Amino acid sequence: MAEGNSFVAVVNDTTTKLTRTTSSGKEKTYSPSYKTVISGTNHAQLLGKKIGDVIEGVFVGEGESLLTGYKLEITGGSDKTGTPMRRDLQGGSRQAILVTASTGFKGHYLVSKTKKGEKKRFRYKPEGMRMRRVFRGNTITQDTRQINLKVVDAGNIGLDTLLGAGEGAAPAE
Fold it and tell me: Which residue ranges make up each domain of the chain?
């Protein structure tokens, strides 16, 4: 995990589509993601940027893995406590807001029942359910620890070569 003056950047390569077979036998298409660290002077370049801003790839990565020729869009992130950033909240501070099912809240809660020694869990989703949740604003600050980026314009060299094919994030099931 990144400490002090650095971010963990998760770069989603939207230009590449891969397929995989799920445990149920279905074919799924996904875009691979790669993790890298942003520190030093590049860290200072990203402070004050907002979700939706497009940045140059030279600010992402370290050493030879700089993403020269790439343009990346900031799509989200989280702070040092894991609190997600939210596009519609201004600033970089933490705020508690009342939300329905959207970013950071699924709109249901889990109910567990035991019947005849058998445990069952199911999602209970009442109509119009709202809850107060804490989110971080849309601006990157010193407290931000992870930044999610999406490739808008690709460079000459592939991300799997620059950031390492073995370090690609596994697709979500």
Answer: 6-89+137-169
